Amino acid sequence: MSSDWAMKPDTQSTFRSEQDVRECVIRPLLDRLGYTPSMVTTELPLIYRYRFLGRKKGQSIDRPLRGQADYIVDVDNLRWVIEAKKPGEITDEDREQAYSYAQHSEVRAVIFAVISGTHFEFHRTSDRPEAGPILAYTWEQREGKFELVRNLVAPDALKNHFPDTEIDTRKPLALGLRSFAKVEVGTFKYTEAPDIPGIPSPVGHIIHLIGGSVVRSEEGGIEAIIGISHSHERLNDFAKDFKWTEFVLKSSDDTISEDPTNPTIFIQNRTLSILKGVEIPVVSSPSSTITASVSVNTEAFIRLSAYMKGVTLIGKLICDSSANGVPIRVCADIELTLR
User: Fold this and answer.
1) CB 101 within 8 A of CB 95
2) Which residue has the higher pLDDT, 155 or 246?
3) Are 308 and 335 in contact (CB under 8 A)?
4) What is the DSSP string of 4-49?
5) What's the fold here for domain 181-338?
6) Neighbour tally for 186: CB within 10 Å
7) Which end of the chain is more exposed for a tag (fewer CB within 10 A), N or C?
């Protein structure tokens, strides 16, 4: 990856969005600092018990909230986080968001940064955002400040600044894993599905599982957040419309079993609603659709029985629901590579 971006004074005019900042500013910066892809986790989903971190507002407001850390940079379990923002001034809300990711129990980063492309800020997590940044500069100042950045967050510098910091002291999820893990890649293979006259069976069809994480939940136990990516755009659009783009499965166990005969059980209950007349893509033939003849509003009960084999989570998923009183069961084999 080229790192000559910092030598081009006109580059700023070419990026306008948060995605531009990620690709044109943050990734080259990490490369220039000496980080390899294996040291950087992107878009890690995180679960918060309360909406207002540190501010009790009552149960009606303090509800569970999910966030997503843009970058978690890891140097031998010593971490710092980066929150990417679109070009412009950095706000207090931006700083609070980055801080919330840094101090999350599954991350515990020593430094958090907010980068908008036009503005750069680095904060010490132990000081909280109100203390102000330990390093701040603008796009125009970036080259003159680079040595300060390298002295602060380059891999060797970070270890020198925090030699006695133990970031991940919580119980591992399983042998070979830390207390949280990123889902690198995975598959969902249909093994059972209802027979529908005239519709090809999805049995044997594979859906790719990308993104997500396996973490310890704030309430105790383990939570698996698994992203779903269909190979066909129509299926992806349908899944987004009906908020079926991921599983959020919970287990009361504190570690993931390594015994296939005694797996860890993850469960999720969710509502499935489809209105009459909606066109439903056929999984095994997405160019074809089924028109919902009636409206369906039912609960889906999802159960995943899983165990670890090395760094691979292997499981069998069963989803039970019903349509107009007729029971429906869908089963699949799941494999996830964790890091």
Assistant:
1) no
2) 155
3) no
4) GGGG-TTGGGG--SHHHHIIIIIHHHHHHHT--GGGEEEEEEEEES
5) Porin (2.40.160)
6) 23
7) N
Question: Contact 263/306 with Cβ under 8 angstroms?
Answer: yes
- According to DSSP, the residues that pair with 294 across neighbouring strands are none
- H/E stretch holding 322: strand 312-323
Q: What strands lie across the sheet with 78-84, from one edge to the other?
A: 40-48, 65-75, 78-84, 111-115, 119-124, 135-138
| Nearest Cα to Cα of residue 88 among 132, 39, 138 | 138
> Which run of H or E residues covers position 143?
helix 142-153
Q: Judge whether 192 and 137 are in contact, CB under 8 Å.
A: no
Q: Can you tell me the distance from the alpha carbon of 120 to that of 137, in angstroms, rounded to the nearest whole number? A: 5
Strand partners, 323: 326
In this prediction the pTM is: 0.57
55 pLDDT higher than 50: no
Name the fold adopted by 4-161. Answer: tt1808, chain A (3.90.1570)
User: Please, are residues 133 and 125 in contact by the beta-carbon 8 Å criterion?
Assistant: no
Report phi then psi at 325, rounded to 5. 85, -5
Q: Which of 15, 11, 40, 1 is nearest to 153 (CA)?
A: 40
Residue-range domain boundaries for the chain? 4-161, 181-338
Q: Which two tokens stand for residue 233?
A: 């755009």
**Mean per-residue pLDDT for 43-51?**
57
Q: Is the dihedral of CA 17, 235, 244, 324 positive or negative?
A: positive
pLDDT in tens, 165-220: 555 556 788 887 777 787 878 999 999 998 877 778 899 999 888 777 888 876 77
DSSP of 164-217: T-----SPPSSTT--SSEEEEEEEEEEEE----TTS---TT-EEEEEEEEEEE-
Provide the 10 A C-beta neighbour count for residue 37.
11
